[in-house]
Design goal:
heterotrimer, A alpha/beta (285), B alpha/beta (263), C mainly alpha (246), A: Rossmann fold, B: 263 residues, alpha/beta, 11 helices, globular
Chain lengths: 285, 263, 246
């Protein structure tokens, strides 16, 4: 399902500039970006670099909800975002916001998962089928009738994600999905993302400061600084480039060790993504 | 400083912990393991149902939160839960006025805090216009300003980018070397690893491990059970077939060992 | 304090009463309400209160209904004393006081056994506009969340030496400012995030949204419906033709 090739990209951002109403500063300046079907892309950069603004442009909150000075265009799956109604965009682009608490509206998990489907006006049987399917996929069936205040942060996160997946989007945006989670829950979320990518072919764009969590599953990292895309490439290309730390990226130790070694003339044959992979390289005679 | 603390309710279950003056302590554990509840006992926001909390050897039972806070400053996770003043300056002096500092001292402490936390240029601005990282530093400034002996940081790195994290690391190190007792509750194992604190692992309201960071972080099964992951450098160290006596504390240590091996 | 917040949370209880169609639960509550208003004797109201207690037990919610009723006792006592004082006589004053308890009991039985989801369905069934229904749902959903915010803010400010209970009335009010401002700021942030999340899940994209749950009267509901109406009519008949001794 997930084919990665030079075909028509799922998402293409073309010369996008944007400044919010009554803000003198441009939040985005001439952003160009293409994301292919089935990719997992990390969007990185320090706070205030324009990541959130770009994400809101992709799912249509900008310009539909936040007007401003908008130049250029974004095309998702053949539709120009600025000209497509929010209702349709909601089915194409899912958005998991940072705080799961503020995206659960209903009093039971299954009802909340159905929220987007109700808004679409799907018949009850179809909703029931999709809700059950998604709960199975995310292993949250036992929570079906629980009210949100009885859920842990990790469970809330899963429920919010389930509500998005139920709408069957091609592209899902995750905005700092692990910031409130403990390490193990965070890595479980990462495995879930990888599974959804493989099994359903969902393309992910993920904003995350703790890069070490996501580099093992990411195809690409896109780095933003001051409203522009400044670097782009595979995790190894970006994180072993000395420029990346000047853009405020926290280089995971494995990558800094790899590039320091290379600089000292003992480059490892294969660039590792995890500590275990690095140890393998080092253990090799 | 000593506190022993025991509690009958589920949130905390027979916790006994003694923290000495000038110690640097990290507390880890999954969400709901009781870390936040434990922290709230230190300055009396919560009182134990059984057992006791001793501060400087004295039972905290009869002492008000305000009195205890004078000695123990807690910086909670979310800056938006405490910033309320019309200016950064007022935000910092709020507690000092509550504690009855005189004007000259307030002035002096304000200047120190603005300077130490890099907030000088904003001293007249509203806290609401600050960035996430600046808000975090203002929160710390508003607490360190009254010079508490013990500083508790609740999830200091949540939502902070690499640059802010580096600043927080620097702040924690400076405060510790200035003689403060520091307690950090955090999920961020990489951040804790850089600080090498004494590490307390909590699970379901109990303290399940307590020891030097470098030792505790190697107890893979225990950490797994408490849903804490290992820092990258420890995971790397453990997967090496030939390795030094203890894990690498930072990249440069790892680098010098690895390049020595490969020569 | 935390206890107060938890009291506001809906707790799912499975019982023969809670699984009734919410409209039937509403009807039963209304029947109790009307009967309490019409009852004019101590025995009459006492029988109603006893029936409410029986239904609450049947709904496995005796303790929660009991808690609200216990709370209403304060006001009931006040009503009793007031009526006695204006010269209504012992029996009539007692009737008024008991009637108040019965009214509180009948309404609380409905709200305690009905989930916010069911309330929403009833509101939709009454053809209340969706935006209004949704505003209600979100308000109920976020009451405990905002209360938790308030507690966390109070903790943060107390840790900065704020003493909420210190001083006279004026300074106590002033002491609330450091709590109220962050609470308002947080609520504004929260509502902004909610609006974004709603938009992103296509709220309002079709004029005819559907619902995962529906209300359908099963034979069980119909049986209870007939039974409750029969008892109601019988009670009205007794009220009309029979006079209790006191």
């Amino acid at each position: 399902m997930a084919s990665k090739g030079p075909e028509v990209p799922l998402l293409s951002v073309e010369g996008l500039s944007f400044s919010y109403l009554d803000s003198p500063r441009a939040a985005l300046t001439d952003v160009n970006l293409k994301i292919n079907r089935g990719e997992i892309v990390i969007l990185a950069g320090q706070s205030g670099c324009g990541k959130s603004t770009l994400l809101r442009c992709v799912n249509g909150l900008i310009p539909h909800m936040y007007p401003g000075d908008y130049k250029g265009r974004i095309v998702v799956d053949g539709d120009v975002v600025a000209e497509t109604p929010m209702g349709k965009l909601a089915q194409m682009v899912g958005f998991l916001f940072q705080n799961p608490e503020n995206q659960i509206f209903m009093f039971s998990v299954e009802r909340d998962i159905a929220f987007g489907l109700e808004n679409q006006g799907l018949p009850r049987q179809e909703m029931r089928r999709r809700v059950d399917e998604v709960m199975g996929l995310l292993h949250i069936e036992p929570l079906a009738l629980r009210p949100p205040h009885e859920l842990s942060d990790g469970q809330k996160q899963r429920v919010a994600l389930a509500g998005i997946i139920a709408m069957r989007p091609n592209l899902v945006i995750l905005d700092e999905p692990t910031s409130l989670l403990d390490p193990k829950t965070a890595s479980e979320l990462v495995s879930l993302v990888s599974k959804l990518n493989k099994e359903l072919g969902i393309t992910f764009v993920i904003v995350e400061h703790r890069l070490e969590l996501l580099t093992p599953i990411a195809d690409r990292i896109v780095v933003m600084d001051k409203g522009r895309v400044v670097m782009e490439g595979t995790p190894t290309e970006v994180l072993t480039n000395p420029a990346s730390s000047t853009h405020g990226l926290a280089i995971p130790p494995v990558f800094s060790l790899y590039s320091e070694l290379a600089e000292r003339g003992s480059r490892l044959p294969r660039a590792p993504l995890t500590p275990e992979e690095m140890a393998q390289e080092l253990n090799a005679p | 400083m000593t506190f022993v603390h025991q509690n009958g309710v589920k949130a905390l279950d027979g916790v006994s912990l003694t923290i000495e003056k000038h110690e640097l302590v990290g507390i880890v554990g999954e969400n709901g393991a009781g870390k936040t509840t434990l922290v709230r006992h230190i300055n009396g926001l919560l009182r134990p149902t059984s057992g006791s909390v001793l501060i400087d050897g004295a039972d905290a039972r009869g002492t008000s939160v305000a009195k205890l806070s004078r000695k123990i400053g807690i910086a909670f996770q979310n800056p938006d839960h405490q910033l309320f003043s019309e200016s950064v300056e007022h935000e910092i002096t709020f507690a000092l006025k509550n504690f009855g500092f005189d004007d000259a001292l307030i002035e002096q402490r304000l200047n120190w805090a603005l300077d130490f936390f890099g907030l000088k240029e904003y001293h007249k601005s509203s806290p609401l216009i600050l960035s996430g990282g600046e808000k975090k530093r203002l929160t710390l400034a508003s607490i360190l300003a009254w010079d508490p002996e013990v500083v508790v940081l609740d999830e200091p790195t949540v939502g902070q980018d690499a640059i802010q994290k580096a600043k927080l690391l620097e702040i924690a190190r400076t405060l510790h070397s200035a003689g403060k007792t520091i307690i950090i509750v955090s999920h961020d194992v990489e951040f804790l690893w850089s600080l090498q604190p004494r590490l307390v692992v909590m699970k379901r309201g109990r303290v399940v491990e307590d020891g030097p960071c470098a030792v505790v972080m190697q107890e893979r099964e225990l950490l797994e059970d408490a849903r804490v992951s290992q820092p990258q450098l420890v995971a790397l160290y453990e997967s090496l077939s030939r390795r030094p006596a203890s894990p690498f504390q930072d990249v440069s240590q790892a680098l010098s060992w690895v390049s020595g091996e490969r020569r | 304090m935390y206890w107060l917040a938890s009291g506001l949370l809906y707790r799912r209880v499975v019982s023969p009463f809670t699984k009734l169609d919410p409209r039937i639960k509403l009807l039963i509550a209304i029947e109790f309400f009307v009967l309490s208003l019409l009852a004019s004797s101590v025995i009459g109201v006492a029988i109603i209160i006893a029936s409410i207690v029986a239904v609450a037990a049947f709904a496995r919610s005796l303790r929660r209904v009991g808690r609200t009723v216990a709370f209403s006792l304060i006001f009931a006592t006040f009503i009793f004393v007031l009526n006695l004082w204006i010269g209504l006589g012992l029996l009539r004053s007692l009737t008024f006081a008991l009637r108040f308890i019965a009214i509180i009991g009948s309404t609380s039985i409905f709200f305690i056994t009905t989930s916010p989801d069911e309330l929403e369905q009833i509101m939709k069934w009454m053809r209340i506009p969706r935006d209004v229904v949704f505003a209600f749902v979100t308000a109920v959903r976020f009451i405990p969340v905002v209360m938790l915010d308030a507690f966390q803010i109070m903790d943060a400010q107390k840790s900065r030496g704020l003493e909420l209970e210190k001083g006279g009335l004026l300074s106590r009010v002033r002491n609330l400012i450091p709590v109220l401002i962050p609470l308002v700021v947080n609520s504004v942030i929260r509502s902004g995030e909610l609006a974004e999340a709603m938009e992103s899940r296509g709220y309002g994209s079709t004029p005819k949204p559907t619902s995962l749950y529906g209300m359908r009267l099963r034979w069980y509901d119909k049986a209870v419906l007939v039974l409750s109406l029969a008892v109601f009519v019988l009670a009205l008949y007794i009220y009309h033709f029979y006079t209790f001794p006191f």
